[in-house]
Amino acid sequence: MNFIHLNNWVSRINAGQFDELVSMYSEDAVLFATFDKQPLINPDLIQGYFRGFLAREGSGVELDNSSIRHTELGDGTYVSTGLYTFFYQEDGQSVRHDARFTFIIDTGSQNPIVHHHSSVIPG
Questions:
Q1: Does domain 4-120 have CATH number 3.10.450.50?
Q2: Which residues face 60 on adjacent strands?
């Protein structure tokens, strides 16, 4: 599988490209976000979440490329799973959160992310 959708998501976060990032999520996407307790079930909630994250100084994400797996579900739909690390600055200190993710991606859509689950790795 081509990793373009996952790589685009990472690039858009790291470049602070808010509009391009949130446009990757389908109108009915669900985001179980790393730093939010509630499921984000509409575009306004998803936009608010990323607006807050990208407002943090030095915010970004790094993929652990060795952990990434893509599984085709059929009809151009894939599940992508793996590990990544979110980072940002807070009170002059570097903060890092290792997390795991699952994306469901419809490669035939203009807004390919239909589901995204992300959670901090315990411990």
A1: yes
A2: 87
Domains of the chain: which residue ranges?
A: 4-120
Helix (H) or strand (E) holding 28: strand 25-32
CA pair distance 21, 111, nearest whole angstrom: 10
Please return the burial class of 25, using the count of CB atoms within 10 Å of its CB with bins 0-12, 13-18 and 19+.
buried
Could you give the C-alpha distances from 17 to 10, 37, 82, 110, in angstroms and in order?
Answer: 10, 24, 23, 17
**CA-to-CA distance for 15 and 50, rounded, in angstroms?**
13
Q: Global pTM?
A: 0.94
Amino acid identity, position 51: R
Cβ within 8 Å of residue 5, ≥6 positions away: 24, 80, 103, 105, 107, 112, 113
pLDDT in tens, 8-63: 999 999 999 999 999 999 999 999 999 999 999 999 999 999 999 999 999 999 99
| Amino acid making up residue 104 | I
